[in-house]
């Protein structure tokens, strides 16, 4: 059996305990500071108005002088939840579009870690939001949670199409107005050129009428018809 010199190992063990304790303390302080910084970061998205409306309808407080809160029809609550899902679809599309760009910029060092932390927090919040919407939909109507986002996606796509058509119609109206002004400008310029041309022709004609006519008296037609020239 080997004899262990505990006195000789006491100093390395104490050093190891101090090192591990320092590492654990630093890790806790670092994580706490990062959590505080992450909490103070600006959110990726603004306030979720549709979610707030749905929660307000779901938890209405009784009016003054009344013991019970007003009864909200289920159709209104379902419509509010569907609008909330439509807004979630819009935010999911934005996250998917920005994820690759943010990752590339982070690898290049063009953006800091704060932006990436904001993005990751927005992703987690959206995951929790989707689960919450599915649970609420199943609570209102059994099985609705499986198809609510499909319906919301169709509504969001139709809204994008309507917005695009409105932009095209607005641009068409602007283009039509521009062409009308352009045609009027070209027409006025053309009429002005025609007037100048007509006035130039009239001046030339008037000038030709006012010029004297020279007649050569030596020509046979200039001699009187009753007299013959003598040789």
From TrEMBL:
InterPro entries: Sec66 (IPR018624). Pfam families: Sec66. Residues 189-231 are annotated as: Disordered. This is Sec62/63 complex, subunit Sec66. Residues 216-231 have a biased composition (Polar residues). Keywords: Membrane, Transmembrane, Transmembrane helix. It comes from Chaetomidium leptoderma. Signal peptide: none annotated. GO terms for cellular component: Sec62/Sec63 complex.
């Amino acid at each position: 059996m080997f004899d262990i010199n505990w006195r000789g190992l006491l100093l390395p063990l104490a050093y190891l305990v101090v090192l591990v304790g320092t590492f654990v303390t630093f890790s806790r302080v670092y994580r706490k500071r990062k959590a505080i910084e992450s909490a103070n970061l600006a959110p990726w998205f603004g306030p979720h108005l549709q979610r707030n409306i749905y929660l307000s309808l779901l938890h209405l407080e009784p009016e003054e002088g009344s013991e019970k809160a007003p009864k909200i029809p289920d159709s209104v609550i379902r419509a509010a939840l569907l609008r909330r899902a439509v807004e979630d679809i819009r935010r999911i599309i934005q996250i998917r579009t920005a994820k690759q760009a943010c990752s590339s910029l982070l690898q290049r060092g063009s953006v800091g870690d704060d932006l990436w932390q904001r993005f990751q927090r927005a992703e987690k919040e959206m995951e929790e939001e989707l689960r919450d919407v599915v649970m609420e939909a199943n609570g209102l109507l059994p099985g609705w949670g499986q198809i609510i986002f499909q319906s919301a996606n169709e509504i969001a796509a139709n809204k994008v199409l309507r917005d695009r058509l409105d932009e095209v119609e607005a641009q068409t109206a602007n283009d039509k107005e521009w062409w009308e002004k352009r045609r009027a400008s070209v027409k006025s310029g053309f009429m002005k050129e025609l007037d100048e041309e007509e006035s130039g022709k009239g001046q030339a004609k008037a000038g030709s009428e006012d010029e004297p006519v020279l007649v050569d008296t030596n020509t046979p037609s200039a001699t009187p018809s009753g007299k013959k020239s003598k040789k």
